[in-house]
From TrEMBL:
<dbReference type="InterPro" id="IPR029058">
    <property type="entry name" value="AB_hydrolase_fold"/>
</dbReference>
<dbReference type="InterPro" id="IPR000801">
    <property type="entry name" value="Esterase-like"/>
</dbReference>
<protein>
    <submittedName>
        <fullName>Carbohydrate acetyl esterase/feruloyl esterase</fullName>
    </submittedName>
</protein>
<dbReference type="Pfam" id="PF00756">
    <property type="entry name" value="Esterase"/>
</dbReference>
<dbReference type="InterPro" id="IPR050583">
    <property type="entry name" value="Mycobacterial_A85_antigen"/>
</dbReference>
Length: 374
């Protein structure tokens, strides 16, 4: 079976997308602040230029090209703190605009902006359900691959492992007929240029109560770190290492996510916990206060009333006692009126996605350009 195509993305044309901000009046202090953009694309496909919202008919030439021809560096001097741009590929015939939305770059960021364009109209993909067996048991997975995955082989991606894979993408797979619609959230965040593109692995529980509690949690954790993570890294173009790898879940899946990251920070550097059922059948409340503290970034949230509001507040307090600092390696939110439901978790999953994979202005891009596969 071939991967399922999700969004139909048209080739954008030479004009800003409707709804993007109009430019402010020129500020002389900011007017000539430069923006550096590095465009990565497989070599020997043609010449790469940029066009911007300053003049969608004018090509911007690169100031440098890497020796192997896969990275083109551009320096722009916008008249405002931001610029929208698109890459063009000049090969035979007319130049081809990159597919997908106009990209946003801001002049205040202390890093270069990395861009991985693709020029064939394509959408995100969902792979067929795949069954993986190990000595610890058998689980099924489904992968979300971002738009342009097949074409731009320079692009490697961070990875998010999500629990309850049956509730993420398709309503007909969900036990309650309501999915998170993760693919649509990722699409919107990509249009906004708010996060790095990310591969999502939905893991389907074999027995939810066993996998996500002490009864079978050890076997499930071992499957994740010994079988699934190596399989994903070998199958897809991933950025490896805990700084590029997150795990996330809701309810008991949130407990499993934090438990796995706490036990294996060498694999998972980020844990997202939505409405975590802490204390139901786990020892995390005592473990987080017993050293050493792993290097993690943790997202916690819940609704109110009920929705595990109190135990999430308690877990937040324990993590602060353990040395986590809110706003740096710990984020906590409570949502008045939010319910313990797939729809509510889907509505707010953009928050941990932006925390884990967002374009942080103080950091270099998480994205990576690597050699084309042999």
């Amino acid at each position: 079976m071939v991967p399922e195509r999700l969004f139909s993305i048209d080739l954008a044309h030479a004009c800003p997308i409707s709804g993007q901000a109009s430019r402010p009046m020129q500020n002389t202090l900011e007017a000539r602040t430069s923006v550096r953009i590095r465009v990565h694309y497989p070599a020997n496909q043609g010449k790469i230029t940029l066009r911007t919202d300053a003049d969608w008919d004018q090509d911007v030439q690169p100031i440098g090209v890497s020796d192997e021809g896969r990275s083109h560096t551009f320096e722009l001097f916008p008249d405002s703190p931001f610029v929208y741009y698109k890459a063009l590929l000049h090969a035979e015939g007319e130049p081809r605009w990159s597919a997908g939305p106009n990209r946003l770059a801001t002049s205040g960021a202390a890093r270069d902006h990395d861009s991985f364009p693709y020029f064939q109209p394509s959408g995100a993909q969902l792979t067929p359900l795949e069954e993986l067996s190990s000595e610890h048991g058998t689980w099924s997975i489904r992968a979300f691959l971002p738009p342009g995955y097949d074409e731009n082989t320079c692009h490697r991606y961070p990875v998010l492992y999500m629990q309850d894979g049956h509730n993420l993408f398709h309503p007909e797979e969900s036990a309650v007929g309501q999915e998170w619609d993760v693919q649509d959230t990722l699409h919107q965040l990509d249009i906004m240029t708010s996060i790095e593109q990310v591969i999502v692995i939905g893991v389907y529980p074999s027995d939810r109560m066993r996998d996500y509690t002490q009864a079978g949690g050890g076997a499930y954790r071992q499957f994740l770190v010994e079988t699934l993570v190596p399989h994903v890294n070998a199958t897809y173009r991933t950025l490896e290492g805990p700084e590029h790898t997150a795990i996330l879940g809701s309810s008991l899946g949130a407990v499993a996510a934090l438990d796995c990251a706490w036990s294996h920070p060498e694999h998972f550097g980020m844990a997202g916990c939505l409405s975590g059922t802490f204390g139901y059948d786990d020892t995390l409340a005592t473990r987080v206060l017993e050293g050493p503290r792993p290097e993690l970034r943790i997202y916690l949230d819940s609704g109110w009333p009920r929705d595990n509001f109190e135990v999430t507040r308690d877990m937040r307090a324990r993590l602060v006692r353990a040395g986590f600092v809110e706003g740096i390696d710990l984020v906590y939110h409570a949502f008045p009126g939010a319910r313990h439901s797939e729809a509510d978790w889907g509505d707010r999953v953009h928050l941990p996605l932006q925390y884990f994979f967002g374009h942080r202005p103080e950091a270099r891009s998480h994205a990576g350009a690597f050699d084309d596969p042999a």
